[in-house]
Amino acid sequence: MKKRLLIILGFALILIVGLEIFLRVYYGFCDTVLMKEDPDFEYIAQPNQQRFRFRNHVMYNSLSMRSKEVDTSSTKILGFGDSVVNGGVQTDQDSLATTILSDSLSKFYEKKIQFLNISAGSWGPDNCYAYLKKYGDFGAKSIFLFVSSHDAYDNMNFEKIVDNHVSFPSKQYSFALYELIDRYLLPRIKSKLNKTMTETDNLGINKKKDNSQFNSGFDSFVSYSKDKNIPLTIYLHADPNEKKLGAYNDQGQEIIRFANENNIPIILDLQNGLELSDFRDNIHINSKGQRKLANTIVKYIVQQTPAANTRYKKLPGQ
User: Which residues contact 195 (CB under 8 A, 6 or more apart)?
Assistant: First the structure.
């Protein structure tokens, strides 16, 4: 009986160790993106990270951008946004719209162009502007602000998020099995048991409160753009519900009105071939959606220059 128990315990130990190794090596558990608090824009990814997570390569440079290091000799375009443009650990670095844009624009214009990815999950325009105010524009030639309808009232409140929300850890788990249970299994069980439905953004935080003000970041970006003479473009992402309806919700309409009233160009997902198959969940786009987003912006950028637009139209498939 004792020998049998030892054999069972031995097999259990081998199974646990094997599963631990498998989760680490194959899925990248204990190697997630780490976050840090910031007094100006609430939180951001810790700098200088190279991660392998869920079979995807994820990197952040020394300024916490999800991009390569800023090259002083390159032409720079700033892309600000939340988890949609950030992609999260479910999107490989090479599949990001900003990576595709950097490569495509560099090849098209035959010079190095960096479309820098300055983003974090659930960031609103005010978070984005706070980063711009703190670090400057790096001599950028243009700025793109990626938003969704919920960003109209997604104001910073500086509630503690880092280490209080499973998607914002500041340190790695010590064991992959514990991370699997604590970060993924238990929250899903609790979510199914919780029947309360509230209006939240894509991470379930910073939900709109009564008497909320239209996000100040929009005005700040417009003022900065005019003061520095740097062209600003707003990209309004649609969620699956808006895609099904064929129209943006009330908050999305407010963003469109704001752009029109301030003469700011706005690119609308719903007018650029967005499909339900481009989503991986109820807000985020998959690799196919990231490429479609990149192609939309490439077309938009080259249309600004008549000579470049003519050459673009002559390319195969255009």
Answer: none
